[in-house]
Write a structure and sequence with these properties.
- By secondary structure, the protein is α+β, with helices and mostly antiparallel strands.
- The protein folds into 2 domains: 228 residues, Aminopeptidase; 96 residues, Elongation Factor Tu (Ef-tu), domain 3 (Beta Barrel).
- Helices cover 28% and strands 29% of the residues.
- The strands form 3 sheets. Strands 1, 2, 3, 12, 13, 14, 15, 16 and 17 form a 9-stranded mixed β-sheet that branches. A 6-stranded antiparallel β-sheet has the order 5-4-9-6-7-8.
- Helix 1 runs antiparallel to helix 6.
- The longest helix is centred in the middle third of the chain and has 19 residues.
- The relative contact order is 0.19.
Length: 345
């Protein structure tokens, strides 16, 4: 298959640079919606703000749904401190030290945006000595230093910043000559870019999927309930396209598509897993099979919600998940091809 990887990397880069933590995803959803519309794929929104694009299949009585989530990790202002710094609360699950030193943007309630840096309360070794090194990184020891002349909480409030305002982490997206994509939020914008590429391939090659196919772009996956509702009612199989997690004890890598056998919520459908594995084998794809003990997906959310369909999970390997993430275009390409094969075979 001739997958237009320039389109994939361009689309992924643009999407990565749109802030979209859970609950604040409208701009990213608009971007994906416009991409679908440019391909002639019909779309609609759910009440919760998710996006669904649909391509009619040969069989219109049964449908399959592929999901990816556009929402990411982020933060929210928890407290305006008396020294003019901001205390934050987490959106999504990540370790606190993974955001230390990160540049960020605060989206104030009045519509203005302000940049800042996430630092510990004892950031300077010249001031705090060994205490700076030994300080435990947590919600009480990290704060945002705003790039404005603020000396106290009143100064901050004058900017229009208040409790509940969103904090976006700079993605720092970079695509290297060697084919690596380095960025925050590859989970799961790499999956969403893969879904767009799958749709593009079907449309441009005049391929009709075996079953009517829905692309479900969820917006609350990082907080656990992304695809829990509004799945198209004729769905009999559901495939989540989300990142795989390479690391010690794992088989996943940054160059393959991973077929997940089991995660923290239990095993995925056995027959569907075997079918995906056979497709990968028969078409000489680079693939891995893996298990993730600390992982959940939109597929997990559908099962917990009680939906009656088979669920599978595939995705590109993303190193250092929920931290300083990285994948390779080969993993994206293998994921896209497996997704296409699943739909047309």
């Amino acid at each position: 298959m001739d997958i237009k990887m320039d389109y994939v990397t361009k689309t992924l880069s643009e999407l990565l640079n749109i802030p979209s933590p859970s609950g604040n995803t409208e701009e990213a959803i608009n971007f994906v919606e416009n991409e679908f519309k440019s391909l002639g794929i019909k779309t609609y929104r759910t009440n919760k703000g998710a996006l669904i694009g649909t391509i009619e299949g040969e069989n219109k009585d049964k449908e399959v749904t592929l999901s990816g989530h556009v929402d990411t990790l982020g933060g929210m202002v928890k407290e305006i401190k008396s020294n003019g710094r901001l205390k934050i609360t987490q959106i999504g699950g990540y370790i606190w030290n993974s955001i230390e030193g990160e540049y960020c943007t605060i989206e104030a309630s009045n519509g203005k945006s302000y940049t800042g840096t996430i630092l510990t309360t004892k950031a300077s070794t010249h001031v705090h000595g060994g205490e700076a090194k030994d300080l435990e990184r947590n919600e009480n020891s990290l704060e945002i230093r705003i790039d404005e002349k603020v000396l106290n909480d009143k100064d901050v409030e004058k900017l229009g910043i208040c409790v509940g305002d969103y904090v976006f982490f700079d993605p720092r997206c970079e695509i290297t000559p060697s084919g690596f994509v380095k960025s925050r939020h590859l989970d799961d914008k790499a999956g969403v870019a893969s879904i767009l590429a799958i749709g593009k391939y079907l449309v441009e090659n005049n391929l009709t999927p075996k079953y009517t196919t829905n692309f479900f772009i969820s917006n609350y996956e990082e907080v656990g309930h992304g695809a829990s509702a509004a799945i198209p009612e004729k769905t009999f199989e559901f495939i989540a396209i989300d990142m795989a997690a390479p690391g010690t004890g794992q088989t996943s890598d940054e160059y393959s598509v991973t077929i997940c056998a089991k995660d923290s919520t239990g095993p995925y459908d056995l027959e569907l897993k075997k079918r995906l594995i056979n497709l990968a084998k028969e078409n000489d794809l680079n693939y891995k099979i893996d298990i993730y003990p600390y992982y959940g997906s939109d597929g997990s959310a559908t099962l917990r919600a009680g939906h009656d369909f088979k669920v599978g999970l595939i995705g590109p390997g993303v190193d250092a998940s929920h931290s300083h993430e990285r994948t390779h275009i080969e993993a994206l390409e293998n994921t896209i091809i497996l997704g296409i094969l699943y739909l047309i075979r």
